[in-house]
Amino acid sequence: MSPTRRALLDSAALGAVGALAGCFGDDPADGSGPVARSSAVSGTDTDPTVVKPRNPDGDRVLVDGSEATDDGEPVSVGRELVTTADRAAELLPAEGVAEEDRRRVREFFDETDYDAETVYVSPAGILSCQRLEIDSVSWRPGRVEYEYCRELRPPDAACEADTRVAMALLFRLPVALDERIGGSGSSGRSPCRTTNTEYSVIDGNATVPGNATATNEWGDF
To answer: What is the average pLDDT score of the chain?
Structure first.
C-alpha cells in the first residue's frame, strides 16, 4: 500500500470517527452538552416541588427588582420560566408578604440547580380561607400547565372569610428549559376528593361549595 493511499485512508477514518462523535453529542461545540438548555422537551411531574406564598395585604406576591415603572414602583412578575440564578435574584417578594413566605421563596430559588432544573412562576389568586393542592405539572415546548384541587385551609390557619388574596405558585421543574413561554394553563376542582381537613370544626362562614368545579376567576391561575 503506498504512503499516499495510507494517508488518505487514515484521514477518512478520522473523519468517520468525528462524524460518529457528533451523532452521539460528544462534541462540546454543538451545544448539546449536559448544561445545554432545551426547548424541545415534554414531560409531567405528578409530585411536583412547589411553594405557594401569599400576600394578604396586596395584589401581588413577586416583583421584578430589575425594573420599575415611571413612578418608581416595582413591576409585578407574571408567568415566567426562571432559568438562571441571576434572574432568580431579581425576583423579590412584594410588600405585605409574610417573613416566613419571604424566606421560603428565597430558599426555593437558591436551592434550585439551574443547570438541570427550571422554576416556573405563575401568579394566582384565592380566597383567604382556601388553599390549593397541586396534583401535577406538565410542560411542552413553549407551554406549562398544572392540575390542582381547592379546599379549605386547616382550622388553625388564620383567614378572613369571603376575602380574596394574592398568591404565587413557584414550581421546580426537573428539566433545563429555555426561558421562552408562549402559553400556560390550569385545571382543577373544588373541593379536593381526599382531604385531611376537619371541616366540622371550621366556622360555618368559611365554606366552599361541595359540588362545584373550580372556576378560572383569576385567569389561568
So the answer is: 77
- Asked if omega into 191 is within 30° of 0 (cis), the reply is yes
The vertex-71 CA angle with 67 and 76, nearest 5°, equals: 40
**Rounded CA separation 139/177 (Å):** 9
Q: Can you give the three-state secondary structure of the chain, one letter per residue?
A: CCHHHHHHHHHHHHHHHHHHHHHCCCCHHHCCCCCCCECCCCEEECCCEEECCEECCCCCCEEEEEEECCCCCEEECCCEEECCHHHHHHEEECCCCCHHHHHHHHHHHHCCCCCCCEEEEEEEEEECCEEEEEEEEEEECCEEEEEEEEEECCCCCCCCCCCEEEEEEEEEECCCECCCCCEEEEEEECCCCCCCCCHHHCCCCCCCCCCCCCCCECECC
Query: Which amino acid makes up residue 45?
Result: D
Least reliable range by pLDDT among 26-35, 57-66, 149-158, 185-194: 26-35
Which of 43, 37, 40, 36 shows the shortest CA–CA distance to 141? 40
CB 54 within 8 A of CB 167: yes
Instruction: Provide the residue type at 59 as one letter.
Output: D
- The three cell numbers of residue 206 are 368559611
The 10s digit of each residue's pLDDT in 114-141 is: 999 999 999 998 999 999 999 999 999 8
In the block, cell 426547548 appears at: 39
Q: How far apart are the first and last CA of the chain?
A: 73
